[in-house]
């Protein structure tokens, strides 16, 4: 779990250091602006923008029941963020598995991607799709409901 927060914490620390330097040099307005930018970057790169992750086995069990896709992701992945943002509100309907928190999820991704932990990997009807187009994932969601 701590690995998921390294980048966001580093961004907050760097933003704080930069803001402190700007305050000392007499530009508090710029300090506030830079700190806000770094905090927003930390928020976007944190696990907070993703729906709550579940374990891979639970996600696969739920997907078998309701037919919804399973998305394997990891914090800090720009392609995972792109998928999450482009799915919008429908992202809550997908079963999300954080591969950094779930060893079974990481193993499933490696099995689907020739030993690589390439994310996002989306499982639809038992078939893996690596870094699919978000529009395609939305289409799969509309088919499952």
From TrEMBL:
One of its GO terms (molecular function) is electron transfer activity. This is Glutaredoxin domain-containing protein. The chain crosses the membrane at residues 29-50. It comes from Streptomyces hawaiiensis. Residues 1-19 form the signal peptide. One of its GO terms (biological process) is cell redox homeostasis. Keywords: Membrane, Signal, Transmembrane, Transmembrane helix. Residues 70-127 form the Glutaredoxin domain. It holds the Pfam family Glutaredoxin. PANTHER family: GLUTAREDOXIN, GLUTAREDOXIN-LIKE PROTEIN NRDH.
């Amino acid at each position: 779990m701590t690995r998921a927060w390294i980048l966001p914490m580093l961004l907050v620390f760097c933003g704080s250091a930069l803001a402190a330097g700007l305050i000392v040099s007499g530009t508090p307005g710029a300090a506030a602006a830079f700190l806000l930018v770094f905090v927003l970057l930390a928020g976007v790169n944190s696990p907070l923008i993703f729906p709550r992750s579940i374990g891979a086995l639970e996600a696969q069990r739920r997907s078998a029941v309701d037919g919804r896709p399973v998305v394997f992701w990891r914090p800090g992945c720009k392609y995972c963020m792109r998928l999450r943002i482009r799915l919008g509100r429908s992202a809550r309907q997908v079963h999300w598995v954080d591969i950094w928190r779930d060893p079974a999820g990481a193993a499933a991704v490696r099995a689907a991607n020739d030993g690589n932990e390439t994310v996002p990997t989306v499982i639809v009807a038992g078939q893996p799709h690596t870094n699919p187009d978000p529009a395609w994932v939305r289409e799969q969601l509309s088919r499952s409901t």
